[in-house]
Amino acid sequence: MALLKMDEIRKMSDAELREELRELGIDLLRERTKIAAGGALENPGRVKEIRRTIARIKTVLRERRGGHGSL
Question: Which of 8, 20, 33, 68 is the most buried (most CB within 10 A)?
Answer without folding.
Answer: 20
